[in-house]
Very-long-chain enoyl-CoA reductase
Amino acid sequence: MDEWTHLPPGVRLTGSARVEILDAKTREKLCFLDKVEPQATIAEIKNLFTKSHPQWYPARQSLRLDPKGKSLKDEDVLQKLPVGTTATLYFRDLGAQISWVTVFLTEYAGPLFIYLLFYFRVPFIYGHRYDFTSSRHTVVHLACICHSFHYVKRLLETLFVHRFSHGTMPLRNIFKNCTYYWGFAAWMAYYINHPLYTPPTYGAQQVKLALAIFVICQLGNFSIHMALRDLRPAGSKTRKIPYPTKNPFTWLFLLVSCPNYTYEVGSWIGFAIMTQCLPVALFSLVGFTQMTIWAKGKHRSYLKEFRDYPPLRMPIIPFLL
């Protein structure tokens, strides 16, 4: 009876354990930890490993039971893992890490600043004769307000609303993400604020309809973020099934697993209709594709984790997708 998972219910191993950590690629022994408490979590083992290898701080570490298996969660307890009194764990270096908050702030501050450069027509963008001139089209100014509002909202949500299940992400991802957000912001802003920009085909009626879609979806997106925030106490990684609240915008939870993505896509569709700009439409399409992938992944996780998960829900589009 040397494996803790085989102990009878209610019985716990009282002695200490040994943990050896091997490189997942080379199988080289990196560390041997003696007298580890059976109740130690993976997070605590990572901290012990860092003492002998300071270059691999806990956020860089992926520990797993199999070299090609899934990473163990920080909250996993050694005693509850299918290992013997000498546990063998395999290490992979996740690379340099950066906090999610830093990533989000960088991603969202960039488009806000870049768009305003084009809106104010700073020198060297449209030619000297247009430096710091203003568009005569109302929709151009309205688009700037909507775009700025969207990213200011995202920045504030990052600081005061979102609670992240993971503290960090690979540093390399920030370059990919910023290229996407910043690049599309510049492309959209260039055409929308261009001196030769042509207003939407159906004029004020098209703009008003698009503005209504944008505002409703922004309110919906914020409402979902607040509902998700309330599901997870500060400092915890608790996961619960999200349900509608008294806020009507959350009722979309009856039909989809990730209504925050539904509202996000709706916002950009509204912005595309408002500006009648091809780069905005392409940004909406690319964003929808990526958010659909994320929504499907979260939907699968919900189904796997919760047996009583509502069966009528789809990942992102009610009844379809």
Remarks:
- The longest strand covers residues 29-36.
- Confidence is low (pLDDT under 50) at residues 1-13.
- The longest helix spans residues 203-231.
- DSSP finds seven helices and six strands in the chain.
